[in-house]
Write a structure and sequence with these properties.
This protein has 121 residues and is mostly helical. It has helices at 42-61, 63-83, 91-120. The longest helix is centred in the last third of the chain and has 30 residues, at 91-120. The model has no long low-confidence stretch (mean pLDDT 78).
């Protein structure tokens, strides 16, 4: 007899019917995420990132628009970092750092433009 032929019978030592001697089948396993969905400072971090990104071209388009946006991006980024201090792996920390960096770059860019035009006179 060929071991690969089963002649219509289930293989020996196979699984039994559900709910038989082995017990009921386990349900779906739920694993909580390590970071809560609404981690503290998420909206501030997102706002900081967007304001910092908008402030960078605002340097060249209109200095008076870029400066308040950059200052707001830096302040919101710092506040979001303080709020996310207890959650070291929170994704909003990266957004807050990105907003902080973009805002600082915009502030330094505006200062460099003002210094360039002041020295050009």
């Amino acid at each position: 007899m060929n071991p690969h032929e089963n002649n219509g019978e289930p293989p020996a030592g196979g699984f039994g019917a559900p709910g038989s001697a082995q017990g009921p089948l386990p349900g779906p396993i739920w694993v909580p995420s390590p970071v809560p969905e609404g981690s503290p400072g998420a909206k501030m971090a997102r706002a900081s990132l967007w304001l910092g990104i908008i402030a960078l071209p605002g340097i060249f388009l209109c200095n008076m628009l870029g400066l308040p946006l950059a200052v707001a991006a830096v302040s919101l980024g710092i506040a979001a970092l303080y709020r996310a201090k207890g959650h070291p792996y929170a994704p909003d920390r990266r957004q807050a750092i990105g907003g902080l960096v973009c805002g600082c770059m915009a502030i330094f860019g505006i200062a460099a433009l003002f210094a360039f035009f002041a020295l050009a006179r």
